[in-house]
Amino acid sequence: MKNNQFTLADIRNAVSAGVLSEEAFARLEGYLSEQAQESPETEKFTLFRGMNDIFIALGICALTIGWFVLWGLLANGPAFWIAPPLAMIAYVALAEYIAGKLKASLPSIAIMAALGATLMIYAVAIYMSLAGPAGQLSDLDTVIDFGQRSMNVLVFVAIIGFAFQLGFFLRYRLPVSFALIAAGLVGVFWSALMATFGPAAEPYIPYLITATGILLLALAIFIDSRDPKRINGWAECAFWLYVFGAPLTIHSIAATFEAAALAMIPVIIIAMVLSLILDRRSPIISGLIYVGYLLQSGFEGAAIDPSMTIVLVCFIVGGLVMAFGVGWQRARHVLLAPFEDHPLRRYLPPS
């Protein structure tokens, strides 16, 4: 409940608590659906609830910048090792209040990023002091440089990052952490592969990125299929999987084929159709980026003035975005109407 406005998830929680019966919930849900003039918006997520969340997030970002600048000023000495644990304790205390009590998503993401970065850099510093060349650890820049050059450290950091995201999600149920857990698990595999095969694995990186994106999208689709009406918290976890998975897939394909029109046009069409079927906008947003790129390349080939090219690209892409935004539900209804009685239709959001 937010500002005395109840969501279906709140009412579903009342059913779980025994306050409301399943039959009453079904009647209420049917009544609310009938009252709606069009199909309900199912792709909902709460990044911030108001200006206060943004205000708190800005404060956390300012504190974080100050903390990393301070850490960077500390030379190799007792303060260099004592300050990070103290900073992590402070971040955990903030997380307990902001993520645990207030349930504020945007500030929680800021805390998660700051705490995770501090933890991983500190872990690299400890690893370097134990396994790195003697006498090289002098400041924060040296630690970061060491982490970027060592494949063993890359594996170590990937494992630490994955464990951190898993713990953060289990403690605070922050939806974005779920997507980062999935990405982190693949990151561990990536880093282990690079550490094992070294430069020989580099030609396969674009294919690994594409495979990772497809896996994230597949997981998102599976989660959505378990809750097509998206009334529980897992729907927001799926949202973040799409946010990470769609760009990874489409951009890596573009990089592999150098964004050639013959490769990108089918990908863009598939992304648009998939977005409408799944009622998720992330794939189509990633695809529209390359619509703009292909249009620009085409206009340049036609020797159109560069300034006019920008105008035309903006007008066409902007018109497409507006058309999809205004006619989204109507387009979904037209696309899915022939399959209304198909058994798989029950796994998709209503149209």
Describe this structure in words.
By secondary structure, this protein is mostly helical. The chain is built from 13 helices and no strands. It has helices spanning 8-16, 22-35, 51-73, 78-102, 105-131, 140-149, 151-172, 175-197, 205-226, 234-256, 261-278, 282-301, 306-336. Helix 12 (282-301) runs antiparallel to helix 13. The longest helix has 31 residues, at 306-336. The protein is globular and about 70 Å long. The chain crosses the membrane at residues 54-74, 80-99, 111-130, 150-170, 177-198, 204-222, 234-253, 259-278, 285-304, 310-328. Keywords: Membrane, Transmembrane, Transmembrane helix. This is DUF2157 domain-containing protein.
Secondary-structure element series = HHHHHHHHHHHHH
User: Rg from C-alpha positions?
Assistant: 24 Å
What form results from the Cα inertia axes?
globular
Query: What oligomeric state best describes the polypeptide chains here?
Result: single chain
Percentage of residues in DSSP E strands: under 5%
Could you describe the largest sheet, including whether it forms a barrel?
none
Number of helical runs?
A: 13
Organism: Thalassospira indica
Protein name: DUF2157 domain-containing protein
Keywords: Membrane, Transmembrane, Transmembrane helix
Transmembrane segments: 54-74, 80-99, 111-130, 150-170, 177-198, 204-222, 234-253, 259-278, 285-304, 310-328
What is the gist of this entry?
By secondary structure, the chain is mostly helical. Helices cover 76% and strands 0% of the residues. The chain has 13 helices and no strands.
